[in-house]
Design a protein that fits this description.
The structure is a homodimer. By secondary structure, chain A is of the alpha/beta class. Chain A has 2 domains: 4-175, Rossmann fold; 188-283, Pantoate-beta-alanine ligase, C-terminal domain (Pantoate--beta-alanine Ligase, Chain: A,domain 2), CATH 3.30.1300.10. Chain A has helices at residues 9-21, 37-48, 77-86, 97-100, 119-122, 126-141, 153-165, 195-201, 203-216, 222-235, and strands spanning 4-6, 26-31, 52-57, 91-93, 107-111, 144-149, 170-175, 239-247, 264-272, 275-283. In chain A, the strands form 2 sheets. In chain A, strands 1-4-3-2-6-7 form a 6-stranded parallel beta sheet, with helices on both faces. In chain A, strands 8-9-10 form a 3-stranded antiparallel beta sheet. In chain A, a hairpin with a 2-residue loop joins strand 9 and strand 10 (275-283). At the A-B interface, strand 5, helix 6 and helix 7 of A face strand 5, helix 6 and helix 7 of B.
């Protein structure tokens, strides 16, 4: 199978139609490129499901705030295509901005409630940009199974919601976060980290692991689960953006004086200098990001 | 050909897929039911284009304001289905609300700029409701040609814009307004009018016809085209909601002290007692709604 790179909506749409016309099912892996092992695990998951895999690579301008890293976000199309080829991806869609945002475009997709906590207030407009581009990618790809990483947990919930709400013929599959040896969640943004920052960043999975173990020992008080995470990140020299507990489905905030009743996600965002890192665990469901170290 | 009525998204999606699988193209006519000759002209246009015709009938709650006529909007499904059958419609999609707005739904589609003038400020949330339901109907129907009346001119522009912007595989076709003998644009809401109100309502096409003739005689001053319309409606005992001149594509407002340069739409909304009526002409393009009466 030879990989084909498409630069226009019309070409990619035809390619996706052609996949289905053979009776195969389409597996879609939407990315912003700078592929790492997390993305490759999504590709593997799509292939293992028996789908013909299409990877989209598009650094979506509308999901970046004015003071965020759109211009310096890593771009490595040739290398990405090579990685896709090795993984037996059939189609790569790497459109120009004008293809995804046609002249005079004025349309946005918004998912409310789910975007009110966690990263929502910290990144105004971010999820509207995500919801809009994902709707467009789904519209171009047509009926498919789409794979997203659980590292961007809130994004996954937004995408699940919009696919259901807009009645799109897309099954959304969330896949586990892929981590480095020290537990740090893989992210294209890790490339920004200096050696010292990278060292400090490992406090994120360590702190989340402590919380998972406390939960496993029976701790249900939200404050007792949340506050030590915030403290550990600060002590490690990270600037906490938020540490929040929320319902795992509707993402409603769980306050410190409440108890965790149902499935809950513990989500964090913290800066190592100028690099914003996020991570999360679903308590009672995800293993600790970092295996317990023998004393 | 026998007409099939579908009540669920899954059934209607399968039916649309099956139409395309035979090599036929799908013609979609989205309506809120209470079909009149305007809707039937859309069906005819779809059939004359050689498409297999599907009519959707759904009174969309999200496009009505809290003080509008959602609850009393005319509903006549059996009669509508009969009319569709006579016109050789293949599929009617008449979903329950829960199908179109699934439990917990939170997603809305918004088209900006185009919705800032004309009906936009008068009906807050209306076009968001329209854009959302049309996106859903397009998502369910899949690749098709969709037919809309030009009576709802701003709606047509919004739908054209969202189909392009969201990269939906849908060609949007706008069709001329169908009118009664006295020029009144057909609308399901005309059923609300008393005999006296119906009489007064005919001032709308009369006033627009005067403006079209002035334009044809070379009048380009926006105020000189617009103000007599407002005056004529008021004198006829209608309560003017707005009379506006706007660019025919981007719908940017043309002020009274400006001149009409390019294609412009003259759009009106007026109340006959509690019934809100709208109408419009594209100057230099549409004929006068009412043929000139011999003196």
């Amino acid at each position: 199978m030879t990989l084909v790179v498409h630069r226009t909506v019309a070409e990619f749409r035809r390619a996706c139609d052609a996949v289905r016309a053979t009776g195969a099912s389409l597996g879609l892996v939407p990315t912003m490129g700078a592929l790492h092992a997390g993305h490759l695990a999504l590709i593997d998951a799509a292939r293992e499901r028996g789908t013909t895999v299409a990877v989209t690579i598009f650094v979506n301008p509308t999901q970046f705030g004015p003071n965020e890293d759109y211009s310096r976000y890593p771009r490595a199309l040739e290398r990405d295509v090579e990685l896709c080829r090795e993984r037996r991806v059939a189609h790569v869609f790497a459109p120009l901005e004008r293809e995804m945002y046609p002249e005079g475009e004025r349309t946005r997709v918004r998912v409310s409630d789910l975007t009110e906590g966690l990263c929502g207030p910290k990144r105004p407009g971010h999820f509207e940009g995500v919801a809009t581009i994902v709707t467009k990618l789904f519209a171009v790809a047509g009926p498919c199974t789409a794979f997203f990483g659980r590292k961007d947990y809130q994004q996954l919930k937004v995408v699940e919601r919009l696919a259901r709400d807009l009645l799109l013929p897309v099954e959304v599959v969330g896949r586990p976060t892929v981590r480095d040896a020290d537990g740090l969640a893989l992210s294209s943004r890790n490339a920004y980290l200096s050696v010292a920052e990278r060292e400090r960043a490992s406090a994120l999975p360590r702190a989340l692991s402590v919380a998972v173990r406390a939960f496993e020992r029976g701790e249900r008080r939200a404050g007792a689960l949340r506050q030590p995470v915030e403290q550990a990140l600060t002590e490690a020299g990270l600037r906490v953006d938020y540490v929040e507990l929320a319902g795992a489905d509707a993402l409603e905030k769980i306050a410190d004086d409440e108890a965790v009743q149902d499935r809950a996600v513990l989500a964090v965002a913290a800066f190592a200098e100028n690099t914003r890192l996020i991570d999360n665990v679903v308590l009672g469901e995800d293993p600790p990001p970092l295996p317990e170290i023998a004393p």
